[in-house]
Amino acid sequence: MLIGNSPIRNLHSGQGFKPESVRAAFFNRRRRQRILRILSLPLYTAFILLFQTSCTYLNIGEQVNLSGTWQMRPGFEQSWTDSMDPDGFQDLETPFSIDINQSEKYAITNGWITIRRILPAEMAHKLQEGQPLTLRSGSLSSVGYFYLNGQLIGHVGRADPYESAMGTYFLADIPAQFARTDRDEQILSIALYTRGDYPLSINAPMVELGTPLGMYLDFFLKDIFTGVLLALYLLVGLMHIFFFIKRPVEKYNFYFGMFCIVAASQWFFNTGMRHVFFQTEVLLRERLDKTTLFLMGPFLVFFFTQFYYRKNTRLAQIFAGVCALLAVLVWFMRMPGIDICLQIWFPVVLFGFGYSIYINFRELRRKNPEARYIMLGILIFAATATSDILNSLKIIHAPFLSEYGFMFFVLGIAGILGNRFMNVYNESDRLNKNLRELNSSYSRFVPHEFLQHLGKNSITDVELGDGIERNFAVLFSDMRDFTAIAESMRAEETLRFLNAYLTRLTPIISSHQGFIDKFIGDAVMALFPENPVNGLRAAIAIFEQLNGYNERRTDSGQSLIRAGCGLHFGEVILGTVGSSLRMDTTVAGDTVNLAARLEGLTKRLNVSLLLSDAVYRALPDGHPYLIREIDMVRVKGKQLPLRIYEACDADPPALRDRKARTLPRFIEALTLYRQAEFDAAHTLFAECHTAVPEDTVAENYLDRCRSMYNTPRPDNWTGVIEFS
Description:
It contains 20 helices and 19 strands. The model is unreliable at 1-27, 55-59 and 97-108 (pLDDT under 50). By secondary structure, it is an alpha+beta fold.
């Protein structure tokens, strides 16, 4: 039989505070925030204590705990409840815990037992004066009937037909008419009954008597406050599980989160709320209760070992293994076996508690600043647990502090972990910021778009040999006579001039969904994914910008800046080349080579913008651009001829308009030329050149036609020109 206080009280802890200069802390924002964080926990707890104490004890009357000397006798008779006849009764001191195997006279696991005592004189007088009083007991394991002077006040559970109380509290008003006015003694009796499935017990507080307002407020506010704490521990646990998901490397967050969740469950099984969910499943409730109780220790010890050592030590694993075994065994046992598991668990958990103290003390000697706060929490736990035990044994008289100490313990560690997580987060944020700045700096050398096409988020992800094949329009742009221009400038002037020129090109290419792959001296290589029309638009925009720039240079007496562009479309290879010590990004393939050759041909043909046949065929029907075919060439390394086109939109507007008017004659002349009708072609090319003297292409064909006058017509004439 067990009569008296519950064997388990909750664990407690708290946080410490390192003294600092008040003046320095006030004028230092970070220190001021740290002080407020440290002070917030005790201030919040003090508020909760004050609130609960004021609600419970402010003007609500006197409450008396009836622990002390009772009389006990196996069996039950109605007459025993209205008399203090000592025959067959023996004294019983409560609260206490007695193992049912220690004494045969207490080994009642099937049948009745009656306990009784005389009410304190002050409470007896209140009853005799007709003042209302309320009786409250701790949770009863089986069935309990409560009597005052032989009259039934009420009961929990039922003896016939049998219905277990399942740990229910007894709370009821005592009718004023039950008081005996013919004598001073007012006898309170409790008849306990069990059918054998659970030992008889009343958990602490065994029996309390007081005014109705005080008793009901104390009873319900306690569960409300406990429910708030339960939700708080559950929230803290889930928060640290979330921390673990965000940073799996920090396993201590997982163990602390699980400890809080299991502790919240254990708190639930020690509140009246458990009756709502387990009205008839007392065995299931007890199994869940003991399982959560047995698992709290392992999660806490694993938290300490992971927090300090980043691993689970051998002793921690042994301790956790024993606790886990006990947690499993309770699911295969009924009540006597579950109690045996509980008896075994007591020395095991003491070992776990001692090992936790050892771990923290060891870190304290190593001057770990976090260990100071955790060690303080452990000391608060030990002090509050000891106080509650001594209070239950009536050695001291003090309020029960277990729930507040446990709140200090959990929130204190949560604050330490939160501070560590925020430090890691801030450091990670700082590193990310540095990485963004680094990527931004690298993007000036390696385009971000290049990384995107490689499927990389950062330059740090790039490895030697990374590469893809995709269709790109490749644009080469080169400044004419840059060497001659640079010879008239000093070195710094040359760089300023070159950067001013290239700075005008960069935003134009970006605004047309392209990106610059390389600056090659005064030349630019740009890429346009998938759509070659963007490359054409960008090239035309470059010459429009250059034409406006030349107008300003002309007004200031400076020489004109001329450029040539070649644009080709096709499959290229983007990737990295080099070695593990030095590598670079590159674009390779025939498309790149042909685009470079086209840019070179602009010098030979003295035109601004040349397109390949692949670009021309990719233009949509009805496009607004003035494009004329000007030649078929065979470049070095290629067997098949390449049909090339001039984009006249790159010329100044007046020149473009004049070329547009001569376009029909130019096309006819080109057709005659390819048919080897050189005289007729010469006549038409001459008309085109007369109308547009700046048309260098027509002038070039005039020279070709003249050279063919005295030359026999070739048998295999195709009009294709070979370029080395």
